[in-house]
Amino acid sequence: MTRKVAVITGGNRGDRAGNGSPARPALVTLPTISKAGALRPRRIWEASMGQFTTIVMSDGATVEAYRAQPTTARRGGLVLLQEIFGLTDHIQEQCEKFAASGYEVLAPAIFDRVAPSLRLSYDAAGLEKAISLVRAHPFELGIADAASCVEELRHAGPVFMLGYCYGGSIAWASAGRLDGLSAAVCYYGGKLPTLASEAPLCPTLVHLGRDDREIPMRPTRDALEQHSAVEVLTYPAGHGFNSDRRADFDQQCSDLAFRETLRFLEKQGIQRPSAKGE
Length: 278
Hints:
Elements (H helix, E strand, L loop, with lengths): L2 E2 L24 E5 L5 E5 L6 E7 L5 E7 L7 E6 L7 H12 L2 E6 L15 H13 L2 H15 L5 E6 L1 H12 L5 E5 L4 H4 L8 E6 L7 H8 L5 E6 L15 H21 L7
């Protein structure tokens, strides 16, 4: 039976049970200066753990990727799929967060064949450019590139996949079409309304913003919850609530989603069946 979960749906925004008690912050923060000169938090996991590299995809293309090695005992590999804005500072930070939690992270540049080294801003001009790239990008190519990254990380332990926005859609589709994944995590994938009928082959966690204007919440959630392998968590937030570069950013929802993701990945890493060839 599908587990239905509604996260922090009442009371204080940081309280999962709705009793008014604030959630504990997940990360210690220190001030730092952003490139724009504005003061923003600096997380304790920010360090030089990751670096840019390249990976040869199944079609022979050499694609840029950001790779971060675990700084604690290795829990497995994690393919991390970007938003539509490229391998931005924000995506690099997400890679480093998961590396600090024990995952070897590989984040491919989804649009690298047509827009090398893409790092778009989050303003109207950046969004317009990003949307044009998404419309021209073959979705199946994104899945194929994700599959190549899975193979790259299968040298030791389980492999997981996680994506945000467009990358979240690829992560959801990959969960139902690829072998070799121990689990997948999808943050507010924009294509979920049309992909929700596809049944994942591995345990899959979906994070949705209750106030997301891009995803019809009730029908999408209802469709996702028809799958026994799917856990759906909803938050009082909009689309892109995990990114502190976006207007819909919500710190408490972001922190809670990160903790729930770590819980989910750790559980699935322990319970995973033996992969072929191991």
